[in-house]
Amino acid sequence: MRRADAVAAALILTLAVTAGAATGCSPEVGSGTYHCGPDRSCPDDLRCDEVSTLCVFPELVESFDCGENGNVHEDDDAPARAFDVGVAGCGQATVQQSGCIDNAGDVDYLRLTTPVGCDGTLSVTARAPVAFMPVTVEIVADDGTTVLGDGTVCEDLDDQGREWTCATAPVTGATGYLVRVRGAGVGQDCDGACAYNRYTLAID
Amino acid sequence: MPRAPVAACAALVVAATLAPPSAARGDGGVDYFGKRDTTSVTYRRAKPRTLNQRLTIGGLAAGAVLSLGVGVYFHLDSRDAADEVSADHGVVGTWTDARQATYDRAGSSGTKAIVGYVLAALFTGGTIAATVMTHPGDEEVVLTPGARAARPLVTPVAGGAVVGGAWSW
Hints:
The complex is a heterodimer of chains A (204) and B (169). Chain A has one helix and 13 strands; from the N terminus they run H-E-E-E-E-E-E-E-E-E-E-E-E-E. With 204 residues, chain A is mainly beta. In chain A, strands 4-6-12-8-9 form a five-stranded mixed beta sheet, with no helix packed on it. Chain B has 169 residues and is an alpha+beta fold. Chain B has a domain at 51-138. Helices cover 43% and strands 20% of the residues of chain B. Chain B has helices spanning 51-85, 97-133, and strands at 11-16, 41-46, 93-94, 138-143, 151-157, 160-166. In chain B, the strands form two sheets. In chain B, strands 1-6-5 form a three-stranded antiparallel beta sheet, with no helix packed on it. Chain B has a two-stranded antiparallel sheet with strand order 2-4. The model of chain B is unreliable at 1-29 (pLDDT under 50). Chain A binds chain B through residues 3, 6-7, 10-11, 14-15, 17-19, 21-22, 24-30, 32-38, 41-44, 54-55, 130, 157, 159, 161, and chain B through 71, 75, 78-79, 81-82, 85-97, 99-100, 103, 106-107, 109-110, 113-114, 117-118, 120-122, 124-125, 128-129, 132-133.
């Protein structure tokens, strides 16, 4: 029947055009084009590679590890076993130190000594991927208990998918101080499934 | 029912040479167009649709236009959102909640666009179907000139004359 054929053809044509037009609107996100977000979040078709912290195809995903030099100073979970970075702070060259919090209860201590004649401010910045458990940093007196400077988020997201946590404290010269790094314990740890993180410390 | 006053006039103009007049008439009084009755004009015209039919077709067409507009709006929104988060090479940033929301918006607006387009297609099909199915056909109309109104028109031209007529109905 000619009339029915014409109606059916018009409908099919319109539906075909519709389907073609609509499928052109899906986001196309390539593997490795985004850093993982909080809680290892990634676009639907991608997964968080815990080594590179990039969103990649699922078959390319590798599990978290602390990296080649990430955990070499363990056991540094107590002030007495703190890793000594030497003289740092107060205008000395910035000391960079990598580390790793490999579980929710892990704590890393570092010891430093301020230069002679330093009466200024000690600054410590920890940079860690937002993909895993946030880390915080504190400046602690040499007794291991008195907190001189609490860490606060000073940049919530840099261009490498990291959050910066900063701590500052007034210090005197030729004195020993401790830097304590640990999990922030504020969620964003994938309900415990990603309660770990790598970090880089900068001590100024 | 009384005739309405003269509403219209149809002029049938015959460009013919009248020398002699019998040349314009065929055998048995058949005129130039092969019609015997030169006092009436017959033609066919489309019947008008009823008000309900016109409202139905208009409503369906309006629905098609509205649905198409909705589809286009969400299609463009979906495209903008998709363009915002799409990336094919290089590291362009971090997958934040805001980007996830944009990604989700691209998908949901795309779905709404499809719904809009499908509705537009259905309304369009309905409009076509309604237009075809309610086609009223046409009817034959015979124009018979009124006695008083019938007027022959003769205009002399070089070598003959132009003959016409006027009717009222």
